[in-house]
Amino acid sequence: MTISIVEVSPRDGLQNESTLVPTADKLALIATLVSSGVRRIEAVSFAHPKRVPQMADAEAVAAGLPRGDVSWIGLVLNERGLDRAIAAGLDEVNVVVVATDTFSQRNQGVPTSEAIAAWSRIAARARGAGLRTTVTIAAAFGCPFEGEVPVARVRSVIDRCLEAAPDELALADTIGVGVPAQVRALHAEVPGDVPLRWHFHNTRNTGYANALAAADLAGDRPTALDSSAGGIGGCPFAPNATGNIATEDLLYLLHRNGFPTGVDVGPLLPLGARLGDLLGHQVPGQLARAGLFPA
User: Fold this and answer.
1) Taking Cα atoms as reference points, which of 210, 208, 285 lies closest to residue 246?
2) Alpha-carbon distance 154 to 165, whole Å?
3) CATH code, domain with 81
4) Mean pLDDT over residues 170-183, rounded?
5) Angle CA(254)–CA(256)–CA(260) in degrees, nearest 5?
6) Residue 253 burial (CB count, 10 A)
7) Whole-model pTM?
8) Domain named Pyruvate carboxyltransferase: which ranges (predicted)?
9) What range does the domain containing 220 cover?
C-alpha cells in the first residue's frame, strides 16, 4: 500500500513562526520539495493577514508555483478565502472544522455547527469551480480548552461533514495529544469508502507512532499523511501546539517499514539547516542531523 505524503511546511510549517519568511525563500523551499517527488503540497493559507501575518503573501506565492506535476492546496476558512483560492488558480482547498465549540470560536469565531454549514457552502462552490476538496476535523484527538474529545462527538462531526461529499476527510491532532489507540478508534468511525488523511503533531513525541498506526490501518483505503520539512509548525490559535512531524523523519520511518511513498528523502536532508538559518532556531527534525541508515 502506497502512503501519500501531503507536504505542509510552506503553510502549517511557517504560519506559527514569528520570523517572516520572504516570498522568494518560500518558493525556494517549495522547489526543493517538488524536486524530492512530493506531489501534493499545501502551499498557502488564505487567512486574514492580520491574524496570520506569515500568510500575507499568499497570492504572490501562488503566482510563483510551478504548475503541472503538483496538486497545489490552499487552506480556506471562509467563502472569501475560497474566492481567493479560485482566483489564485489552486487545485485543491482544505477547509477546517474544529470538533469542539470553544476552539472553533477561538479559531474561526463560530461554533462547530456554523463551521460545518460554512464548509458545506464552500464544498459546493469549490466543486463547481473544479477544485478538489478536503475537510479537516481539527482537535479530533483533544482540545486545548475542553480537554478530551469523545469519539462520539468526532463521529457526529464526521457524519455531518460527509454530507457535503468531500474528496477526502482529514483527522487532525492539532495540539499533539493523540496516541495510536485513538488513531485506531477514529479510523473505525470513518466509512470505508472515504479517502483518509491524517495530520499529526509531535508535541508529546507521539506523532510518529500515530503516523505508523495510520499507515498500518490503511489497507486498500487511499491514505495520506501530512508532514512538514524539518518538523516546523504549529497552530497560532492553540497554546503550545508546536511541532508537525518532520517529512524526512516520516519518510525514513515509512520506507524502513515497507511503505512506499514515491518521495526521495535525499533532497530534503539539507532543508533542516536552511530552515534553521531562515527562522533563527534549530528545527525539530532528527534525520538531517543523524543521517540515513544505511549511510
Assistant:
1) 285
2) 17
3) 3.20.20.70
4) 97
5) 50
6) 18
7) 0.96
8) 3-269
9) 4-290
